[in-house]
Amino acid sequence: MAAVLTRDIVKTFDEINAVNGISLRVPDGEFMVLLGPSGCGKTTLLRIICGLEQQTSGDLLIGGNIVNDIPPRARGIAMMFQSYGLYPHYTVRNNIAFPLRTQRMPSQDIQKKVGWAAQLLGIGHLLDRRPRQLSGGERQRVALARALVREPTALLLDEPLSNLDAKLRTSARQEIKNFQQRVGLTTIYVTHDQVEAMGMGDRIAVIDHGRVRQVGTPIEIYQDPADLFVATFVGAPPMNIVTCNGGGYLGFRPENFLPRDMIGDDGVTEFSFRVDRSEYLGSERIVYGVMDGFDSKQPITAKLPPAHVAEGSVRPGEWHRFAVKNSELRRFEASGNRSTRH
Ligand SMILES: Nc1ncnc2c1ncn2[C@@H]1O[C@H](COP(=O)(O)OP(=O)(O)O)[C@@H](O)[C@H]1O
Ligand SMILES: [Mg+2]
């Protein structure tokens, strides 16, 4: 196991800065999630870390050693791709053995290692099947076994769950996380899905346009977003942002709307909004509307426990007062950065 450190990594393709100066420290044993929209440079950064791509500038350190010029295989890092890349005509056994065969390991040792990896992932009974005879979740475990068979010091996962259906994704998420905790493997996990990031990461690095916007625990990222990008990228529905008189912004989450009987309490700020429509989702009701803004009408979303809003009590076109605790308001500068004034 080893810590991974990137120091001001830049990668330029033609004119595009795919990675724009990323410095990131992933301590030994940490599960770090890189979260960002499609095209923000996540895959490129992973490919640089495992050595499939050479950075334009900056240093990469693994276990404290600079590995800029070390070829991929010698870096001791495993990468699992979005598509898994299993060989369809090989059995599971031979898929897992493949990285060891290319290392010319004696076949007895290969069998031992394959057995070890298969046991680790609970796929011992699947060794003689071919990929097409496996479910999506089983394929994923085989790909993981193949990534781990060389006992890497760190594991890189690039959107590994994107090919699974929603239900399987939830269980696969827990499987990967349990496995990682059990083995204590330094892991960098790429996703554009903020729910995955929140649920899995020890820490999350939020990336946009090849830059890190914020690094923090899921709680820090959610409660204290560093800027408007992070505030609106993490959380569904996203944080409400309304412009203020002075040109800055005020943010509050859809779940921050207080019950009506708290309007007028100390330490709350009151607003009013017009209901446009609402959706009943069983555990909650999502209300979409517009707020009487400071200089214009601003769209807002409220997530209310159904108990707070009896059926038919929020009708389109009605104006309602609502309140948010001052401690849950977040202020942003016109530049988008978090305001230091409170
Ligand atoms: N080999 C390449 N040649 C040219 N542009 C590339 C190449 N790989 C990636 N890019 C560009 O770099 C940017 C980041 O891509 P990528 O790292 O794949 O993003 P992500 O994985 O976050 O979706 C994109 O604009 C993409 O088009
Ligand atoms: Mg990608």
TrEMBL record:
| SMART domains noted in UniProt | AAA
Domain (ABC transporter): give its ranges: 4-234
Keywords, in A-Z order: ATP-binding, Cell membrane, Hydrolase, Membrane, Nucleotide-binding, Translocase, Transport
Keyword DNA-binding applies = no
> Cellular component terms, GO, for this chain's entry?
ATP-binding cassette (ABC) transporter complex, substrate-binding subunit-containing
Q: What is its EC number?
A: 3.6.3.20
- Gene Ontology terms, MF aspect: ABC-type transporter activity; ATP binding; ATP hydrolysis activity
Q: What class of enzyme is it?
A: hydrolase
Q: Name one GO biological process term.
A: carbohydrate transport
Compartments annotated for it: namely: Cell inner membrane
Q: Which family does it belong to?
A: Belongs to the ABC transporter superfamily.
Q: Which PANTHER family match?
A: MALTODEXTRIN IMPORT ATP-BINDING PROTEIN MSMX, TREHALOSE IMPORT ATP-BINDING PROTEIN SUGC
Q: What is this protein called?
A: ABC transporter ATP-binding protein
Q: Which organism is it from?
A: Bradyrhizobium vignae
State the taxonomy lineage.
Bacteria, Pseudomonadati, Pseudomonadota, Alphaproteobacteria, Hyphomicrobiales
